[in-house]
# Entry
Amino acid sequence: MTTRARSTWAALGGGVVGAGLAAAWLGGSSADAAAPNRAPSEDRIAALEAQLEAERDARLALAGELQTLRAVFLSGVDATAEAAEPTGDEASAPVEPERDAVSANDRARRWFDDQALRDLELAEAEIASLRTRFESLELEELYLRDRASREGWLADGEYWRELIGLRKQLREDVGERDYDLLLYAGRRENRVVIADVLGRSPAGAAGLQIGDEIVSYAGRRVFEPRELTESTSEGAAGANTELRVRRGGETLRFFVPRGPLGLRLKTARRPPSR
# Structure
């Protein structure tokens, strides 16, 4: 079991313990039952509300972690690669001070990072439009998850097929540029990076290197490992196919036979080009 997987299950355990503590309070202790007229103090109520809010936040974060792990598992990518240190643009980008009154901690907990788009010098009207599209997708995903949970097929492949279908439809509706911006502002990984290359593989023979960022395959932008895996399995096996990567700030073109490439991939969240 990977370190990330162990952390995920540890978080699950913590959520169960926290829920149990909340249930014990809401149910009342024997001492409270013996003195029904004694109201709990306001401080105790405030502490409980804060604890429940923290538990809700933890569950939301955990749900995102589990979705990521599931998607990584289905795409055949090494889940431990996501824990790698940030590289390239992400690692070298300067940390700018907050431009509004929102604390860095509060900003990090938000679904949609408006400030990240302001840093890219987008107009407020465009940011508002992107937020509207993002929130619509998030609500659709929440309703899909709720329906799958109620009907008992949350753990089935059908749930993941429908979830991927929602995101594909959004991508077709808004186009590649705005989809990239939505992923970035939504705090989702939007880049696929080579973590390792088999020496005698088609990728190795073509000259691909660790750290290369996959830009496109057969003319189609790549935002997640699953997309590259699906594309290599389409068309005529062995057909000469263009693969574009970013290396050291430069876009390079390679030609590889369509089929398995011999790459191990990881994901990263990086600012879209201005």
Summary: Residues 110 and 118 are 15 Å apart (CA to CA). The longest strand covers residues 240-247.
